[in-house]
């Protein structure tokens, strides 16, 4: 089989009403542009009729492929499996709820193929979501921009385009779908761009992510930043912090002992060390320092056993 021009990866959870329109729309755009394509629909454990709708659509559209999860594993898992399955030269991800427009696909593809981008992220400049979602999202994007140094306005946009090798190199796990640009950059892909995309209000169904997304988003951001700085050498972080703690604790203990001996020699009034708050602080710092060191060693041991310890991106070969 010749390589397809485009794979469209669509994670979906209870979106039965939207699917027929979405598939027809994608097909219309692709036929107009004369592109060969596949639509990979990942049913993330829906309990409405989504899977039956996919089965029915497959009878009309040859381009449809479907994966059905045994239960709801989350959007990241769905994207991960979609990426594994994708065979197209350019891979597009898009939400199933008709909030993203398939009309953007040709231009996104052109940016990848002609302008040399590895990843192009959509930017919903004019957004049709409730204000309670837009403002936190602005703040979240600002933090992600500052922390990662990647200048994107909308990290979590569902509509994105990738060069094929990008999706094969990154591993989207947990709830990391919000940080794919950061994962891609960490994997060595430097050409990350964005394109203003059209956004629509949700037509059917309801949003699958509640307010807890903000809390999770922040915790995940911290993990991603930690992993990208210290993922390969946790000892630098834990060992560094441990050394500081240990030196502080050790130094303070010495000082307390020295002060006591000095006072003893000069016949000054003495206070038992156990009456001094500093003594407890010093002991605690020494114990914490050792603990942090141990965490560093454990981190290194776990790293040695991990499968992606030797994942390197090789750009060219002669
Ligand atoms: N989604 C999914 N698994 C989940 C939650 C959501 O596959 O556990 C899909 C959902 O069906 C949609 C996309 O992820 O296609 C984005 O979800 P949603 O539209 O609810 O998010 P929002 O637009 O509110 O950010
Ligand atoms: Mg949506």
General description of the model:
The chain is 50% helix and 12% strand. It is of the alpha/beta class. Helix 5 (131-148) runs parallel beside helix 8 and helix 9 runs antiparallel to helix 10. The longest helix is centred in the C-terminal third of the chain and has 32 residues, at 234-265. It starts with 5 loop residues before the first strand and ends in a 13-residue tail after the last helix. Residues 95, 97, 99, 202, 207 line the site of magnesium ion. Residues 95, 97, 99, 202, 207 line the site of magnesium ion (MG).
Question: What small molecules does this complex bind?
Answer: uridine-5'-diphosphate, magnesium ion
% residues in beta strands: 5-15%
Strand runs, count: 7
Helix residue percentage: 40-55%
Order of helices and strands: EHEHEHEHEHEHHEHHH
Q: State Rg.
A: 26 Å
Record the strand order, biggest sheet: 3-2-1-4-6-5-7
Secondary structure class reads alpha/beta
Summed over residues and divided by their number, the pLDDT gives a mean of: 92
Q: Please tell me what the overall shape is.
A: elongated
Largest sheet: 7 strands, mixed
- Tell me the number of helical segments per DSSP (H or I, 4 or more residues long): 10
Sequence-ordered SSE layout with sheet pairings:
Layout: E1 6-12, H1 19-33, E2 37-43, H2 50-60, E3 64-68, H3 75-85, E4 90-93, H4 105-114, E5 119-123, H5 131-148, E6 160-163, H6 164-169, H7 180-186, E7 192-196, H8 212-230, H9 234-265, H10 277-305
Parallel strand pairs: 1-2, 1-4, 2-3, 5-7
Antiparallel strand pairs: 4-6, 5-6
Helix pairs in contact: 5-8, 9-10
This protein binds uridine-5'-diphosphate and magnesium ion.
Magnesium ion binds near residues 95 and 202.
